[in-house]
Amino acid sequence: MKKILAMALALCMVFTLCAVASADDVKTYKVGVSIYQFTDNFMTLYRNEIENYFKSLETDTVKYEITMADGKNDMAEQTNQVQNFITQGMDVIILNLVQTSSADAVIDMVVDAGIPLVLINREPLAYDADGNTIDEAYEGILNNPTVCYVGADARQSGTFQGQMVLALDNKGDLNGDGKVSYIMIEGDPENIDAQYRTEFSVKALTDAGVEVEELFDQVGNWDQTKGQELCASALTQFGDKVEVVFCNNDAMALGAATAITAAGRTVGEDIYLYGVDALEEAVQLIKEGEMSGTVLNDAVGQSHAAVDVAVQLLNGEEIQNYYWVDYVMVDKAYAEANY
Ligand code: BGC
Which of 154, 159, 243, 310 has a Cα at 20 to 30 A from 96? Predict the structure, then answer.
C-alpha cells in the first residue's frame, strides 16, 4: 500500500512539473492590426479572416494575442494607434493604411522601433522625380527587409471587368450606336485600386477596338449609400444612354443595383452592372441576374498570405517585399458553378 501511495505521489509530482514546464513553454506573440475603417464591407471580411486564421495556427506552445484597431478613416487616429502598438511592444504589426501618402512616416516609426510590418490592401505608390505616381515598387518597402506589402494587382480586376463586357454578344453596345456609353463610380481616389480599376476596365474595351463614351465619373468612396446616390443621379441625368455601370467595388455596385431597379431599368436587358470583390450579396445578385458580374478580390487568400508572412517575421525568417494574390473573374456561369 505504501508503495502504491509513493508511486501515486511521484506521478503527481511529475504531472505538476510537466504542467509548470509547459506553461513556461507557451510563447504568446502580440500582434497589432489597424484597419483603415471597420465599416468597410470588404475589409470586414478581411479582418475577421486575419483573426480566424491566426487562431487556427495556434498550438499548445504558440499563441497569438491580437489587438484589432479601427482607423476610422482618419490618418491621425491611425498614427496614434501605431504609436500605441509600439509602446505596447507588439511583436509584429499588420497595417491597412488610411492614407498611403503617409506610408513613409509610418514605416519609419515602426522600423525604428524594431518591429516587423506587413502592409495590406492599400499599396503605397512609387513616385518619379516630378512627384507623379509610377508603376514601380515602393522604396519605403524595398529598402526594409522586415517590411512587406500583401495585395492584389488592381489592374487585373479592372481588366476583368472590361473583359466581361467584351464577352457579351453586343460587347456592351445595347443601343447599337457603335459605342459603349458608361458611367464610372470610383472608390477613394487616393487608393491605387480605385485608380487602376477605373483605368483598366475601360482600357480593356479600347484595347479591343471598342469605342467608348464616358457619361459620368464620380467618387463614391467605396460606400454603398454613395454608390446608390451617384448611380441614381447618373440615371436621372443620362437615362437610356447609360449602357454600362462600372463600380470600383461591390459595395457601391449593390447601391447601384438598388438605383437601377428604382429607375425601372433591368440589368441584362437594358443596362449592365459590374463590381469588384465578390461579396456574398453581390454574387447572389449575379445569380439572380441583377448584377452582370464581379471580380473576386480574395480576402481569404490575402489575409492568409498576410498572416503567413507575419508568422515568418515572428520566426525571424527572411521574407519577400511583395506578395500578390490573383483576382478571379466572376460572371453568372462562374457564380453558379462556384458559390
Ligand atoms: C476593395 C474595396 C475596399 C477597399 C478598401 C479594395 O480592394 O475592393 O471594397 O473598400 O479595398 O481599401
Answer: 159
CA–centroid distance, residue 107 to ligand 1 (Å): 21
Q: How many other C-beta atoms are found inside a 10 Å radius of the C-beta of residue 262?
A: 12
CA of 284 to the centre of ligand 1 (A): 19
For 5-22, the pLDDT digits (tens) are 555 555 555 555 444 545
Task: State whether the beta carbon of 148 lies less than 6 angstroms from ligand 1.
Answer: no
Determine the length of the chain.
339
99 lines ligand 1 (CB under 6 A): no
At residue 215, what are phi and psi to the nearest 5 degrees?
-90, -30
The CATH classification number of 155-296 equals 3.40.50.2300
Q: Which protein residue's CA is at the shortest distance from atom 10 of ligand 1?
A: 222
Q: What is the pLDDT of residues 169-194, one digit of tens each?
A: 999 999 999 999 999 999 999 999 99
Ligand 1 in reach of 122 Cβ (< 6 A):
yes
Tell me if domain 27-151+299-325 and domain 155-296 are identical in fold.
Answer: yes
pTM: 0.92
- The full set of domain ranges for the chain reads 27-151+299-325, 155-296
Helices (H), 113-215: 139-142, 154-166, 192-207
In this structure, are residues 327 and 160 in contact, taking their beta carbons and an 8 Å threshold?
Answer: yes
The set of cell numbers assigned to 318 is 527572411
Atom of ligand 1 nearest to the CA of 277: 8
Write the DSSP assignment of 87-141 as a string of letters.
HTT-SEEEE--S-GGGHHHHHHHHHHTT--EEEESSPPPEE-TTS-EESS--HHH
- Give the integer Cα–Cα distance in Å for 71 and 303: 18
Distance 277 CA to ligand 1 centre (A): 8
Residue 245: exposed, middle, or buried by beta-carbon count in 10 A (0-12, 13-18, 19+)? buried
Contact 197, 265 (CB under 8 A): no
Phi, psi of 261 (to 5 degrees): -65, -45
Assign a CATH topology to domain 27-151+299-325: Rossmann fold (3.40.50)
